[in-house]
Amino acid sequence: MAISQPVFPYGTELIAAFEKCLSAERLASYYALAKGDRLLGIQLHERNTELSEALYGVIQGLEVTLRNVIHNVMTTSLGTPEWCDHFQWEEPELTAVQEAKAKITEKLLPSTPGRLVAELTFGFWVKLTAYPYERKLWFAHLHQIVPSTVRRKNLHGRLMEFKTLRNRIAHHERIIGRARDLPTEYQNIIDVIGWLDPHIQSWVRHKNCFTERYTKPLKRTRTVPPPASNSVSTVK
């Protein structure tokens, strides 16, 4: 809430509107976290939005760094920025590359390597660290993207967790009050960014507001009553 913003007047009619427009089913899990306190449940929903917003940039730093680090290593290893056209893909990834190129063409843009890298999904890049690509990608090339002490299985497992978190945020789902500890997930993302590039890790760590928002006390705002009739000014 901005400093100059007045306290928002939560009332029964507003909560009813929340349940109608946001859906009672969606709010049910927040009400459960609040042990039936509907107003607190709404505030937890707001906190979820704040934390999702804060983590968006952190995950962006990871995703963009991952795809470009992979692209740079593969460009050097295969001797061309168009390495995607010279690699023996498994069928799902070959289809993903073809579909990404088609989307670029639909936008009436040249299909450059940079645009292809940006068009391919986070899931595509995560899959490149999976077991099916261990021999022809990881051992041959991608082991270079992280320190030698980091195993492919460990990196892939972390990335799969981040992919789940990313998708929950993208689909406006609840990320608080789960079995997974959110500060731990945040720190894991920061750690993996550090594996990929310590300079980007430092930048992301210092330019996000997750910890500040997570540790901010939740103010138990109660319903603000309407102004008394005698306090309403009359326009003449």
Give a topology summary:
Layout: H1 12-33, H2 38-78, H3 91-106, H4 113-119, H5 122-127, H6 134-139, H7 152-170, H8 182-196, H9 198-206, H10 210-215
Helix pairs in contact: 1-2, 2-8, 2-9, 7-8, 8-9
Relevant terms:
236 residues, mainly alpha, 10 helices, 62% helix, disordered C terminus
pLDDT average, as an integer?
Answer: 91
Give the overall shape, derived from the CA principal axes.
elongated
Secondary-structure-based class equals mainly alpha
Number of helices: 10
Order of helices and strands: HHHHHHHHHH
Share of residues in strands: under 5%
| CA-CA gap between termini | 34 Å
Number of strands: 0
In terms of per-residue confidence, which ranges show pLDDT below 50 for 5 or more consecutive residues? 223-236
- Rg computed from alpha carbons, rounded to a whole number of angstroms: 23 Å
